[in-house]
């Protein structure tokens, strides 16, 4: 059984469905009308501004037929039909209280127990099969890391990976960069040294949100890849030290890069970044690029450094890391706002050649959403 009741002299309504009740305000409903006078049928964008909706908008009449809610608004004398399932999917009459650092159900954190279970797919399979691509992108979005295997062993093959979901983000390093030992390197990544787990380019604002690392040669001893879920690390810090979590999420760190002539990149962001409503949205952790921290009050600086140290210890804990070795034609993609990557040191014997590039997560999520919608429609047909 379903019913609807007009409340507060038409300023809101109550929708009763199967024993549950959800309320909506008249102005919200009018703003979210899907009719052709309010939304462009082709792209869904609004054709009116909020100022075009009377401030004293009220609901004059309401009725339900099947899964459709029909409303009459005053003073426009405008009737609008709403899909009830759409309304329920966008309901806001719920408990909004959450602990700082909350994550949505679409994300899943992990630690070393995921060893051997890193999402992986065949390059040719995802390139040819939209369903396989949807699954692989869904795993990348959920876990923040995914591998591809059996790809071409050719220069700049990593661009073909990005072509699956988006566009290369060019930086001062170019459209891509070579990860191999150099004399007088502009970055420690271009040495045979081991690297602590880190996110890339924290000195940029905005930071590149996806990174691809593609193996073309790997005959050196060592040089294994490691990944650490920065969200799991941040939540572990919150469990151990709520004060430390609060300091690293409220006080900004500073990052800087000046490794080449004509380039000085600086950013000021917290190491643990939260939305205004407390959702955990990013981790920036890169000791090599950390600049002097000056945005923490004197009486909290020692506590800040203690939290910083503890976060580093958590990141370095072997129980947090998943390691694997990439062979030629294999690559991994990481959400650079979340997953830290590292490598073990490697010897001078043999060759280790990787290529890397950046892309943006919004394009990847767009491709995933479009695939999900298209495949759902095809399945329903």
Automatic annotation (TrEMBL):
Does S-adenosyl-L-methionine appear among the keywords? no
A single GO BP term for this record reads: carnitine biosynthetic process
The record's section on InterPro entries has: AlphaKG_dependent_hydroxylases, GBBH-like_N_sf, TauD-like_sf, TauD/TfdA-like
Q: Which UniProt keywords apply?
A: Dioxygenase, Iron, Metal-binding, Oxidoreductase
| TauD/TfdA-like domain residues | 122-358
Q: Which residues form a coiled coil?
A: none
Listed cofactors = L-ascorbate; Fe(2+)
Q: Does the keyword ATP-binding apply?
A: no
**Protein name per its UniProtKB record:** Gamma-butyrobetaine hydroxylase
Lineage from the top down? Bacteria, Pseudomonadati, Pseudomonadota, Gammaproteobacteria, Oceanospirillales
């Amino acid at each position: 059984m379903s019913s609807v009741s007009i409340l507060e002299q038409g300023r809101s309504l109550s929708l009763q469905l199967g024993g549950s009740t959800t309320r909506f305000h008249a102005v919200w409903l009018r703003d979210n009308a899907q009719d052709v006078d309010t939304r462009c049928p082709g792209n869904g964008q609004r054709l009116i501004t909020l100022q075009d909706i009377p401030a004293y908008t009220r609901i004059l009449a309401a009725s339900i037929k099947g899964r459709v809610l029909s409303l009459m608004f005053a003073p426009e004398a405008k009737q609008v039909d709403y899909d009830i399932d759409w309304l329920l999917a966008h309901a806001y009459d719920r408990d909004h209280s959450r602990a700082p650092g909350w994550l949505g159900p679409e994300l899943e954190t992990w630690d070393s127990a995921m060893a051997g279970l890193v999402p992986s797919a065949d390059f040719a399979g995802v390139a040819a099969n939209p369903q396989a691509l949807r699954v692989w992108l869904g795993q990348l979005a959920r876990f923040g890391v995914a591998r591809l295997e059996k790809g071409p062993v050719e220069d700049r093959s990593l661009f073909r990976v990005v072509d699956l979901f988006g566009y290369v983000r060019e930086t001062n390093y170019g459209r891509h960069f070579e990860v191999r030992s150099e004399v007088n390197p502009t970055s420690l990544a271009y040495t045979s040294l081991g690297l602590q787990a880190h996110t890339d380019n924290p000195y940029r604002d905005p930071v590149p949100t996806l990174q691809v690392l593609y193996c073309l040669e790997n005959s050196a001893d060592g040089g294994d890849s490691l990944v650490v879920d920065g969200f799991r690390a941040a939540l572990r810090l919150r469990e151990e030290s709520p004060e430390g979590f609060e300091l690293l999420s409220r006080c900004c760190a500073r990052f800087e890069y000046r490794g080449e002539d004509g380039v000085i990149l600086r950013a000021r962001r917290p190491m643990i970044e939260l939305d205004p409503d407390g959702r955990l949205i990013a981790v920036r952790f890169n000791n090599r690029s950390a600049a002097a921290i000056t945005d923490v009050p004197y009486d909290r600086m020692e506590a800040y450094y203690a939290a910083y140290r503890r976060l580093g210890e958590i990141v370095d804990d072997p129980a947090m890391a998943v390691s694997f070795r990439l062979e030629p034609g294999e690559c991994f993609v990481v959400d650079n706002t979340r997953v830290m990557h590292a490598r073990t040191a490697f010897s001078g014997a043999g060759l280790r050649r990787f290529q890397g590039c950046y892309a943006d997560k919004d394009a990847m999520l767009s491709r995933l959403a479009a695939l999900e919608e298209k495949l759902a429609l095809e399945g329903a047909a």
